[in-house]
């Protein structure tokens, strides 16, 4: 069995209130095991024999749309991938002293044109770095005070994404890390 972490968009934001027990039930109804939630913002940890992450994402998104009545973009990472993401350093440590680092999960890496559009959002307040299927956003003010937002990102790049604070990502990775290098349990 492989341990996966699902990052769901539009859970407990924008008027979409979903109980974590209900989300766990939806995942269990798909045959996933060891289902847990991590804070009430759409982070689910589960195990599955399935090996195709994109297929799992589609299955979960379809199930949740049917159960909740709205689209829930779903982004899957293995425990090993999440550990790598949590330890990746996109900016020098000095830059993080007076800033917050957010991580956006994407379905696919950005192509060069999309990366160029993303970098157009750079400002004295906001900086960005891409690596694999993630965008790292360094925000030097409260995110609500920044001119950048998930909505602007999705509109400009014509993609779906979901952001998590890097502290949350690091806590999930530390809590659900595997005892050895493989992502098999």
Describe this structure in words.
By secondary structure, the protein is of the alpha+beta class. The chain folds into 2 domains: 2-78, SP0830-like domains (Alpha-Beta Plaits, 2-Layer Sandwich), CATH 3.30.70.1280; 86-173, Alpha-Beta Plaits (2-Layer Sandwich). It is 33% helix and 24% strand. It contains 6 helices and 8 strands. The chain has helices spanning 20-29, 53-68, 79-87, 112-119, 150-157, 166-175; strands at residues 2-8, 33-37, 43-48, 74-78, 100-105, 126-131, 134-139, 162-165. The strands form 2 sheets. It has a 4-stranded antiparallel beta sheet. The protein has a 4-stranded antiparallel beta sheet with strand order 6-7-5-8. Mean pLDDT is 93; it is low at 180-185.
Mind sketching the topology for me?
Blueprint: E1 2-8, H1 20-29, E2 33-37, E3 43-48, H2 53-68, E4 74-78, H3 79-87, E5 100-105, H4 112-119, E6 126-131, E7 134-139, H5 150-157, E8 162-165, H6 166-175
Helix pairs in contact: 3-6
Features:
single chain, 185 residues, alpha+beta, Alpha-Beta Plaits, 2 domains, four-stranded antiparallel β-sheet, 6 helices, 8 strands, 33% helix, 24% strand, globular, disordered C terminus
CATH architecture of the largest domain: 2-Layer Sandwich
The CATH topology annotation of the largest domain reads as: Alpha-Beta Plaits
Task: State the distance separating the first and last CA atoms.
Answer: 6 Å
* Low confidence ranges: 180-185
Major pleated sheet: 4 strands, antiparallel
Q: What's the total count of β strands?
A: 8
Q: What is the CA-atom radius of gyration, in angstroms? A: 16 Å
Structural class: alpha+beta
Tell me the strand percentage band: 15-25%
Helical residue percent band = 25-40%
Q: Major sheet: order of its strands?
A: 2-3-1-4
Overall tally of structural domains: 2
Mean pLDDT: 93
Top-tier CATH class of the largest domain: Alpha Beta
